Amino acid sequence: KLIKDPGNFEEFGTRITGVVTYHDKSHGSERGKNIVFKIEFPNEMNVVHLGDLGHILDEKTVKILRPVNILLIPVGGYFTIEPDEAKRICEQLKPNVIIPMHYRTKYMNFPIKSVESFLRHFPSNKVKNVDNPVKLSREELEKIDFEVWVMRI
After folding, report:
1. What 3-state DSSP class applies to 96?
2. For the whole model, what pTM was predicted?
3. Contact 104, 112 (CB under 8 A)
4. Which of these, 34, 121, 39, 120, lies nearest to 80 by C-alpha position?
């Protein structure tokens, strides 16, 4: 089942909450709406995907999304939040694992920032380069206080 709208859904014991946010700082007047998804797995592991978020989250949205174990967050700016704004959102949501996305790589030429612009906000011992895909159990996740995982491309 494809879920692309805001609301609450449940499939096979997994709950999915879609929350309307915006792709810009002007309540969508520049780039439209964005839907943030929280996925709550039966093993009590919560994943939040912020999509093309373009603004800092309000407290109501933060309350809906927390607790967050794994956060997928745009960090490249221009079309989405800037790296320093992404850092602020990480502080709001307090995830165990942060996975940056939507940043410039050698494979594309968009006018966005590299992942390093985001990573400079964190101690280097908290940043890990990881292979894709990643397997992570609830027990392993509980041992992680806070890490940023950069997926190898």
Report:
1. coil
2. 0.95
3. yes
4. 34
Q: In this structure, which CATH number among 3.30.43.10, 3.40.630.40, 3.60.15.10, 3.40.640.10 belongs to the domain 7-151?
A: 3.60.15.10
What pLDDT tens digit does each residue of the chain (153 aa) get? 789 899 999 999 999 999 999 999 999 889 999 999 999 999 889 999 999 999 999 999 999 999 999 999 999 999 999 999 999 999 999 999 999 999 999 998 889 999 999 999 999 999 999 998 988 998 999 899 999 999 988
For 150: left if phi > 0, alpha if psi spans -120 to 50, otherwise beta; the answer is: beta
